[in-house]
Amino acid sequence: MRTRSVLWGTGFLCLLSAVVGGCSASRQWRQAERIDAAPVRVSGVVTAVEHVPKSGYEQVIAYEVQGHRRTVTRALGTGPGSPGVCHRVCLEADRDHPGVVRLCGERYPSGDDLYPTYGLVAVAGAIGTCAVAGVAAGVRRRSRSKPAR
Fold it and tell me: What is the pLDDT along the chain (149 residues), one digit of tens a residue?
């Protein structure tokens, strides 16, 4: 009985990670396509550098698109040459949805380094779900083939 609940729990977690990773990758893809369809190049200004525990620092960037003032937070590094307060940063925003923004020269709004991670999480979750389903089928088949006492 315990084996069955562990299998169901593991299968559910693998399926959940596949769905979350796939949805995140799909969302980033759609936002990138949206920006490519109607890009607006804007100049943002770093208004603050915030400390994020266990992650380092992130810059808060204020920008204006079609008269609407917005902010976005990105991790741009903190070493020499990294933008500090009052530095200008090039951004590309979606004309129809000004909240969708990416750094100039990048493909995806969350950054080009993070997009492959979403895909890998989705693939790993799908593989894990299939593996758990195969093990569950094998356990069920073995329990049926046992002779009744």
Answer: 577 778 778 888 888 888 888 888 888 889 999 999 988 999 999 999 988 888 788 889 999 988 889 999 888 877 777 788 899 999 999 988 888 899 988 888 877 777 788 888 888 888 888 888 887 777 766 666 666 55
Placement of tokens 């994020």 in the chain: 52
What is the Cα gyration radius of the chain? Answer: 23
CB 45 within 8 A of CB 61: yes
Return the half-sphere exposure (C-beta side, CA atoms, 13 A cut-off) of residue 65: 24
Tokens of 93: 């925003």
Amino acid at 2: R
Both structure tokens of 32: 């990138």
